[in-house]
Each structure stands twice: as C-alpha cells, then as structure tokens.
Design brief:
Layout: E1 11-14, E2 19-23, E3 28-31, E4 37-44, E5 50-54, E6 64-66, E7 71-75, E8 89-92, E9 98-108
Antiparallel strand pairs: 1-9, 2-9, 3-8, 4-7, 4-9, 5-6, 5-8
Length: about 110
C-alpha cells in the first residue's frame, strides 16, 4: 500500500483493518489514545445519532455528532492544533445501540 502522509523521520502506513464497535447508552471507547494517529474516520451504521467526545467520555446531546445510516466523522491531521487526532475518542447514543465502523491511519516510528 502507498504512503499517504510522509513526515520527516516517519513512514506512513495505512492500517488495513476496519474495526466495528457498538456505541451504547453508556459512553463507549471508539478509538484508543494513539500518539502516532494521522487520521481517524468514524462511520455510523446505526439508526440513531452517535454523540462523540474527544479525550473524555461522551454525553448525549453534547460534542460532535455522527448522523445515522452512514453518517461519518473524519478527524484528519489538520485538526492537530488541539491535539485531537491523538486522543481517545468516545461515543454514546440516547436509546438504541449503533454500530460504528472505525478506520485509523497511523505512522510507524523509525
């Protein structure tokens, strides 16, 4: 696979697997802390909005939201002004659990 984001001293490589996590009525870890993360894509395949928080547990009605039935949230390298791309990402729904697919691209330390 091709390198997407070359950075001095690092070689970018895509993570070949997509994970699926069920976001429930309690805050759920969707993506763990990753200091080498370049990009994270979250896609909501459920029938309910998933509320997302970066760096702390999610709460219904607060933070970012991913619409149901294929809505996506992309956290790219450009958002690193606040360190968002590296932090753990949590999700929650109000009533019906939703399947969230995650795709994460990281760099490999030299």
């Amino acid at each position: 696979m091709a390198s997407f984001f070359p950075i001095d001293g690092y070689e970018a490589w895509p993570i070949p697997a997509v994970d699926a996590i069920t976001a429930g009525v309690a805050s759920t870890l969707l993506a763990a802390l990753n200091d080498l993360r370049l990009e994270l894509v979250l896609t909501n395949y459920g029938s309910e909005t998933v509320w997302v928080n970066i760096g702390a547990p999610a709460e219904v009605g607060k933070g970012l939201s991913i619409p149901p039935s294929g809505g996506s949230l992309v956290i790219p390298i450009e958002t690193d002004a606040h360190g968002w791309r590296k932090r753990a990402v949590y999700g929650i729904v109000a009533t019906t659990p939703s399947l969230v697919a995650t795709f994460e691209q990281s760099v490999q330390a030299p």
